[in-house]
Amino acid sequence: MTRRLLLLSSSRDAAGVYLLHSAALIRATLGPATKRILFIPYAGVTIRHADYAAKAAVPLATLGFALPSITDAPNPVHAVTNAEAIVIGGGNTFQLLATLYANDLIDAIRARVFAGAPYIGWSAGAVVSAPTMQTTNDMPIVEPKSLRALGLIPFQINAHYTDFQQPNHQGETRAERLEEFIELNRRTRVLGLREGSSLSIVDDEISLNGEGTAPVFEYGKPRRDLSPGTDLSFLLEPAGHAV
Description:
The chain is of the alpha/beta class. The chain contains seven helices and ten strands. The chain has a six-stranded mixed beta sheet. A four-stranded mixed beta sheet has the order 5-6-9-10. The radius of gyration is 17 Å and the shape is globular.
């Protein structure tokens, strides 16, 4: 299957460096032929789409890429169909997916990526690369037409994953919430992307970037915490349990 993806947990590293901390990965994902990247800022809620696009354009310009925004295109579907590459920024995943549906872009993005256009997504943009957005951390501030997402990969992403448990906090941990998900969605695996981590996917090969481990949750199996350099190709194979 043809695909070239870079899925980042966050747009910033621990020091707050915006996008450029992943400069080498961005260049490798886009390749030498890419000059213009279509930016989709729909996940932005408290930031204007034009401001979001302008903000993301600055670091990418230093890498030699132009970043036109889909919000400036007369026809969003046409813009996706003709995009050299696609970047979806982070924000609220419910808002992002609702707007993708409102503009009839789900099938268009999927078709363009599987036709060879590189795809980069951070935070919400990484989450919607999965079959559904059900493993987001976001509040449902709007109701999308469906929870089904782009389906560029066969497993779920939980961005900003953490094992931190605040003292005296009585709510569920992140791991407990993801275990609830796989209890009811037994054919689906979930990978937690910690801050500073990302996935590079080229066709049927996956590599984990960064220094932290990535936990994988799968029904009927113990949690696995995978290190960078581990073979992750099993994530592209069907999970084996029925509901």
